[in-house]
Design goal:
homodimer; Alpha-Beta Plaits; nine-stranded mixed sheet; four-stranded antiparallel sheet; 15 strands; 23% strand
Chain lengths: 419, 419
């Protein structure tokens, strides 16, 4: 390892200025950001990122999946590229750190390498992946790069067909174009990402850096409980086929399933849509948006079975029909050894404590990990708040994370790459 | 009683033609109608009603609350007016009979009286009341006529302010204008309405006609369960303040309350609105649309208390806050003796069986009953289906109801009116 590189630090003030500027795009009154994929605020943030790339003298690159990158050629023509990055989109009414921190840190790493004229064995690329949060489809950018995006993924996307079409049109993209973003397997050296933890384990354990061992598997379904519309004044409660009863029983039931049988997993109903939706009509149908996560393959499959069985049971209990629509699934994904070791070495060289942990959130790394060495680090989230305006990480922790990213990248990019 | 009048019958074929024509406005593929107040389909049905009035040589009248009437002067200048009527609006995806039957029957009664040149002691008016189903506010037309509509009723209407404003604009009405529809107490002799039962009691008891004794009281609230948005992958279930859990617990709870303690009452959650509404965010708030009904004052007040207490308990159990928004209330309303006796006499004269029952649905009669003698009859609903495309009444029962309406109206309009 090159000891001179280990001494390197990012420019904390410059990265702070970037971070603060970015937080203005889609800023909400309560201090968060609202930047769903290809919303006006998201498009403005993407434009700002492009301007920062060009201002830094880096090469701006874009692909058919809407990914935007800063590229720094610091190795030969045949060299592979080490990707560093995250995403600029947010969940509705999300926080300022999720995604944004990883993008500004990746950009800052490239600036530091460029201004220090460091020669490496791989080129560097700071990338903003499209639609990590799944406003439209989920992981459009990273699945596109990995060649894993399929036409069928676009047929019943999380956000609906109309949203997908409108979003792509706003960004000047097309559905066929999304599939052109796939990279050659031999062109990429690996992927590193800095992210906030979105949980409390680091702060509870008083550790500076979390090195991710696995990314949880995520499954999503839409479950439609179908009953019968009736007059809510003249139909006795016991004579109803009330879709709201079955759907509500299911929501209560998933909590029971997790607490009793899957204490290390999670499940969520983020939305229920009632039809026809009037005060005085017994609901004829309720569509439930279900998501669940597990870090290991066996738990994942068994949890999925239990949840769908419970939905059937609740539907039967209230005389309802159940329509099950599969939305998507990402298998649990282990992170690669090589980046994990590089992160640990960088922490040690910088005098930072570190902890190995699984990620309860999905990340772009899971799209890439089957093809390339992918690794992630986390910095502590105060109170574990995430996907919320309350999301917060101490700035000193953000700087620590960016310094670990820098030094791990330098280590990996200094190693000889088999190609 | 005038025996000649008792022999009168409405023209069943003519009324059938009206009924079928009206069912085309807002017709849904499954045989129902979708005519929310001041939708395009509802405006078209209103225009059609006006044309039938004019075609029948009756006087068309309209007021500031959007009520449309056929007027037949069959008494002196100082005579009162007996109102007959119902409403042309429907719930979303409702049935063809609810409201429509009462309007075409009232119009048919006036045509029969006119073509038989019957001299009476009161004038007759067949009225279509605005917004009975509450798409906008609920009972705009009848409360307007009774002078009971208040500016505060328009401030947080059931359908929201924007819907109200847009609807009034489409109908060429204004908010101040709504209050101009109030009639002098001395100008009205009473109100009679024919309606489908919307329940199964008549068909279960094999009776032709239901004579309404009371109209249930109806209360409506919006209950907002407020928790905390969190990342659905990284926040353990036991650490969440999940608004969906409290709201779902409440939905299950109201069923328990009704079945255990209020078997003669009903309650309904017709809608739940989740925020922010994403698969991967724990819902920060859920707004529950609650309605409940009871035929007697004591039950009504006690049920209201139990429901609101249960909402508080569920909110506390899941660490949520609760915001209670009162939407509206109609007290339980007894029907007047005089029309009830006239309906019973008409049934007897026509050889029709009849049953006294309370109405589980709200009707315009409840707006009018405190000022004037109001009465209603029901005809049997097959399977009790209501507020649904499955709503159906045998045509022979519709004709029976219209004949009872005709003969009861003749009897009441023949009596001397104190003025």
């Amino acid at each position: 390892m090159d000891n001179r590189n280990l001494a390197l630090r990012i420019n904390a003030e410059r990265m702070r200025a970037d971070f603060d500027a970015l937080a203005q795009f889609g800023a909400t009154p309560n201090g968060g950001v609202h930047r769903p994929t290809f919303s006006e605020a998201h498009l403005a943030a993407r434009q700002w990122f492009r301007e920062q790339i060009e201002k830094a003298g880096l090469e701006f690159r874009a692909d058919g999946a809407g990914n935007h990158s800063a590229f720094l050629k610091c190795a030969g023509n045949d060299a592979k590229t080490l990707l560093l990055g995250s995403h600029l989109d947010s969940v509705p009414d999300g926080g300022r750190f999720d995604g944004a921190l990883g993008v500004v840190a990746a950009l800052e790493v490239l600036r530091v390498v460029k201004e220090n004229n460091i020669a490496l064995r791989t080129n560097l690329e700071a990338i903003d992946f499209t639609d990590e949060e799944g406003t439209l489809v989920g992981f459009i950018g990273s699945a596109g790069v990995a060649g894993k995006l399929k036409p069928v993924d676009l047929q019943s996307p999380r956000g609906g067909r109309a949203n997908l079409q409108a979003g792509l049109a706003r960004a000047g993209l097309t559905e066929p174009g999304l599939f052109t973003a796939a990279r050659d397997r031999d062109s990429i050296a690996g992927y590193l990402e800095l992210h906030i933890e979105q949980g409390k384990r680091l702060s509870d354990a008083h550790q500076d850096i979390g090195i991710v061992t696995d990314i949880v598997g995520i499954g999503a379904y839409r479950l439609k409980f179908i009953g019968r519309a009736d007059h809510a004044g003249t139909t006795p409660v016991q004579a109803r086929r009330d879709a709201g009863q079955g759907a509500s029983g299911f929501v209560r039931g998933i909590r029971e399933i997790i607490l009793l049988d899957f204490p290390h997993c999670v499940a969520n109903v983020g939305k229920m849509e009632f039809s026809p939706g009037a005060f005085n009509i017994v609901p004829s149908s309720v569509v439930v948006s279900l998501e669940f996560r597990a870090a290991h393959e066996y738990d994942f499959a068994w949890l999925e079975t239990c949840l769908l069985e419970r939905a059937k049971t609740e539907a039967q209990h209230f005389g309802l029909e159940l329509e099950v629509e599969f939305i998507g699934k990402h298998a649990p994904t282990p992170m690669s050894e090589k980046p994990r070791r590089a992160f640990a070495a960088a922490c040690d060289a910088l005098g930072l404590s570190h902890l190995s942990l699984a990620s309860g959130a999905g990340h772009d790394a899971q799209s890439l990990a089957h093809l390339w060495d992918a690794g992630m680090i986390f910095v502590p989230s105060v109170d574990g708040a995430s996907h919320s305006a309350r999301e917060f990480t101490e700035w000193s922790d953000c700087v620590n994370g960016a310094n670990v990213l820098l030094n791990a990248a330098l280590q990996l990019a200094s190693q000889s790459q088999s190609s």
